[in-house]
Structures
1.
Amino acid sequence: MAELNINKNKCVGCGNCIKACPTCALFLQEDKAVVDEEKCILCSMCIDTCPYDAISLETKKCSITAADTYSGVWVFVEQHVGEIKPVSYELLGKGRELADRRKSQLTAVILGNHIRQTSKELIARGADRVIFCDHEKLGKQHDEYYANALTTILSGETPEIFLFGATSFGRSLAPRIAARLQTGLTADCTQLEIDEETGCLHQTRPAFGGNLMATIVCPEHRPQMATVRPGVMKALDIDENRNGQLIEVNYRPDISENVEILNEVNEEAAETIADAPIIISAGRGIGSHKNMALVNRLASLMGAQVGVSRPLVDTGWSEYRHQIGQTGAVVAPKLLITCGISGAIQHLAGISGAHTIIAINSDSEAPIFSVAHYKIVGDCVEVLKRLIAEMETKQN
Ligand SMILES: Cc1cc2nc3c(=O)[nH]c(=O)nc-3n(C[C@H](O)[C@H](O)[C@H](O)COP(=O)(O)OP(=O)(O)OC[C@H]3O[C@@H](n4cnc5c(N)ncnc54)[C@H](O)[C@@H]3O)c2cc1C
């Protein structure tokens, strides 16, 4: 855990830090700054304002008793009707890296009905062990049964880290598990780093409406739990030569059902850009609402999905589910074509995982070009029309 440290020898009592503190956690005592730990939120604003380098943020060592008994990285692998969500592969990629750095094992946990075959695949995706529970009650994504089964699996196990995808189901299930284990949970992370010395997982996520990136640690409890946004981490290549252990846990439901699932709506039916392999995205440079028809047409010709920058959602030209960026979706398509997008930092936060970016912008100095692999300087409306004409000719 972090702690604000004030060096009394350096502090001259100038009071700059007191003015900068948004929570009134600092005050003067005998002409030296003092911190009220109850009020301090460790935002670091005071550190930057101190001209004498008297303030620092120090990371305390993990204070859990017998922290060493917790070991291993666990990933909850989400599947639906036998199909694994891509974010689970991405988590196995990150989990592998964290487990290697901690010199521990990576365990994939998968629940469902008729999933034995699906479970085996997870070893090729990076897991050392796969724990699976196969039961008809786990055929549907029912939080109560899943939480019950996971608790059964976890009894006697002491993972150091447990990761879930920030899907709608992962966001619902992870807090139930965190509450049962009496540990913390950081939601919607976009970055995970391990402090090899303390074993603390640094879990970074947008905060205050995306204006700040906050790094959160869970020093007092284990496992350290996080949900991670889809499309941010990189999945590993499949390696059929990897060896691992497949462990089946027998599950006997011992709960009274409080929630009955009447109907499941197929998520795939609703367009989701997070997993799209090709995205055509539009920004303010598209000029007018009617030009969105060109973006939609090219997307349909290329079998792509449509993404947009935030101003297009704000003006009502598009819906929020199409928004890419820090406060929208994080995408990792094989091909991304941006049309009239400047490349603001908040937008770039959503496209860093894109494999190939073709940017169209009339301004040759637009920041988007610094991340693009191919650059087209010109009017995006004209370029779109020509691309559509070209594709239509090819199709006929
Ligand atoms: C807390 C916070 C969170 C945010 N979250 C997001 C987010 O999630 N996603 C997001 O996108 N933004 C987000 N924003 C907004 C972000 O800062 C930018 O304002 C936004 O991304 C700009 O969108 P844009 O590139 O479409 O528009 P602009 O910045 O206005 O850029 C338009 C671009 O189009 C080019 N252009 C103009 N005419 C043409 C033409 N005819 N042909 C080709 N190019 C042309 C211009 O040269 C320019 O580069 C956030 C902002 C804040 C403060």
2.
Amino acid sequence: MHRTIAGPAVTCPDCKNQTCHTCRFWLEKISWHEAGDAFPGDTSIVVARVDSVHFVVRPMNSTLPARHLGLGGRQITFRFDDGQTVTSNDVMCQGDIPAWFRSRLPDNAVIVSQSTAGSRALFGPAEGIDTDQATSAPAEESR
Ligand SMILES: [Zn+2]
């Protein structure tokens, strides 16, 4: 079904048959996409892809402190290709979709607004991907 796109070969640098940690992480996201961008087991959660960055958008959460929410509680509004908009303060970012999977994980949304609250970069350390930076958040701002 899927044909190789003409042009320079873009393949995983770590494996040849999509069995490495990175490939398995993203093959799971492809399965969500192929199921209609449905998050397994919880229809209140939606999946957004913006400029080849992958997000899991959980419902607005007014009970937990911001530090326990995705992206530090930053409020983001996504507009999906079907015109639906979803605003959440509990968005998880999985980071950049690898080039060799982008044709199977096309963008489905744009970000139309986000709060300026929070000090973390929007595209900071990615959830679920090996990184040593996950705990190296910037020092607290002096007040
Ligand atoms: Zn791989």
